[in-house]
Write a structure and sequence with these properties.
The chain has three helices and 25 strands. It has 383 residues and is mainly beta. It has one domain: Kelch-type beta propeller (Neuraminidase). The longest helix is centred in the N-terminal third of the chain and has 8 residues. The protein is globular and about 50 Å long. The two termini are 33 Å apart.
Length: 383
């Protein structure tokens, strides 16, 4: 599916020459090598990070494709210095008894510079649950394509995951290392629940924001509308701040990200742009300079955030990088070249996530037909 765009600074192209952290063996033996590499980088530069164990986590148990298909997001747990990845390969498998084998999840551990796979996702399935997998008698839920359905509570390290084509959100509790189900979005609040949306943690509000890509449709005007749902973590309740008014030009694969600079959630309806603000209001922005959608078949964008400036960053299939300031509603093309190893023809199997502890953004690209991948860091601003 569609991946996103990432934006860089106004430094000259000469600063964009990729760096490498020593030899593979040196990198593999160096503890917390991401910290050393990030500290050595200048603003506006890219650097390749040699890590251990990437293919084993990217390739699902069924043995084909990769879990980076139809997603553009990895999420950073700053408390435990881990970059979490989750997804499912696009194998076309429809056998429910083995379909979960298309899925995989795990994380990059900064302390050991190693990718660590986790057991197949398992959660208690209740009789009333409509979660995919549960209603097919499986002991575990389906991860499937993850789009932008994954987020992390940065105050606890707990992971939240919205299930494919479902009003159900799952929670992985770090303290117990177990999965559980959140209360489902009440049917009275639900619009049409689309396959692909976005889930984002909003730290200032202590909540999860779920953006439903095609919440409603006006058949007279043939217009689709986004829906915004909010889950209060403390009270364990859902509300619906907005539905039926936010126009979207794409009913599928919409994106949303938290921006530390604006203290808001940026919500995209392809070229339509909104912010969900700290005070619970919604603001309409000017149309985006680029089309924002989770990458599918190499079109659209990869979308992330600079952890230092708090600005939104985007990268398109040609390697052009953009920066968006939600406070001033301004787009800037930065002119920083992107390594061809990260973007080469399309954004398939490219994901990104801000690494707040080290002031960089991590990009991972995996090429499933060669069972190989690369990890790059990008530094936009200096801490």
């Amino acid at each position: 599916m569609v991946r996103r765009l990432v934006v860089w600074t106004l430094l000259s192209l000469s600063l964009a020459v990729p760096l490498r952290l020593g030899s593979s063996s040196q990198s593999e033996n160096r503890v917390n090598s991401i910290a050393g590499l990030a500290a050595s980088m200048r603003p506006g530069t890219w650097a390749q990070l040699e890590t251990v164990g990437l293919p084993a986590v990217m390739i699902p148990p069924i043995g084909s494709g990769s879990i980076l298909e139809y997603t553009d997001r990895i999420v950073w747990d700053p408390l435990h210095t881990r970059m979490v990845v989750m997804g499912g390969a696009h194998t076309g498998n429809t056998n429910y008894s083995i379909e979960w084998q298309d899925d995989q999840w795990g994380w990059y551990d900064a302390g050991t510079n190693t990718w660590v796979g986790q057991s197949p996702s398992k959660a208690t399935c209740t009789a009333s649950s409509t979660a995919d997998g549960c209603n097919n008698g499986l002991p575990q839920f389906r991860i499937s394509h993850s789009y932008e359905h994954m987020t992390v509570d940065t105050s606890t390290g707990d992971i939240y995951y919205r299930l494919y084509f479902s009003p159900q959100v799952m929670k992985w509790t770090f303290a117990t290392q177990t999965w559980s189900m959140l209360p489902i979005i009440p049917p009275a609040l639900q619009g049409y629940i689309q396959v692909a949306g976005a889930l984002v943690y909003f730290p200032e509000r202590g909540s999860l924001i779920f953006v439903n890509a095609q919440d409603s449709h006006n058949y007279t005007t043939n217009q689709d509308y986004l829906g915004i749902y909010e889950f209060n973590i403390a009270s364990q309740t859902w509300t619906k701040p907005s539905g039926g008014t936010l126009v979207t030009d794409s009913p599928y694969q919409n994106v949303a990200s938290y921006g530390p600079a604006c203290h808001c959630i940026l919500v995209s309806g392809y070229d339509k742009l909104y912010t969900y603000n700290q005070d619970g209001t919604v603001s309409t922005k000017a149309n985006s300079a680029i089309n924002l959608r989770v990458a599918a078949s190499g079109s659209e964008s990869v979308n992330t955030v600079d952890p230092v400036s708090g600005l939104f960053l985007f990268l398109d299939t040609t390697g052009v990088a953009w920066q968006y300031n939600a406070t001033t509603d301004a787009w800037t093309q930065t002119g920083i070249a992107t390594p061809s190893a990260v973007v080469s023809g399309n954004l398939d199997e490219v994901v990104a996530g801000p690494v707040s502890n080290y002031g960089v953004v991590m990009f991972v690209r995996f090429i499933s037909n060669s069972s190989s991948g690369v990890v790059y860091l990008y530094k936009h601003r200096q801490n």
